[in-house]
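Sequence, please.
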């Protein structure tokens, strides 16, 4: 389950930032998840719950923001939301594209008590 390893890395980043800023408690963590990131939200939430049972993140909430997949057409350069496959430009019907977003997973913010 790669969500466990992913959450471990995300929480390591949160812990490091908390130490650097003398945080006493983390109330919530907001994570952005791209539509094409292959992350299972339920598994990620389960891993978060399991890994925040003690310490400065005990009782913290996980908030997930879902980022749509956005592509840019290779022919006409139009940017559009790629809802499914095949990815086809809605303006010129070209199938040549470059993904601009949708594969990312990152910490957007954390709410803390200093």
């Amino acid at each position: 389950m790669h969500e466990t390893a992913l959450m471990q890395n995300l929480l390591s980043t949160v812990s490091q930032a908390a130490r650097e800023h003398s945080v006493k408690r983390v109330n919530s963590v907001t994570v952005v998840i791209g539509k094409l990131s292959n992350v299972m939200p339920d598994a990620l939430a389960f891993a978060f719950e399991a890994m925040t049972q003690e310490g400065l993140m005990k009782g913290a909430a996980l908030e997930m923001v879902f980022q749509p997949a956005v592509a840019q057409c290779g022919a006409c350069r139009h940017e559009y939301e790629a809802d499914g496959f095949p990815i086809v430009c809605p303006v010129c019907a070209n199938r040549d594209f470059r993904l601009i977003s949708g594969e990312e997973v990152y910490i957007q913010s954390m709410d803390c008590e200093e």
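The mean pLDDT is 94.
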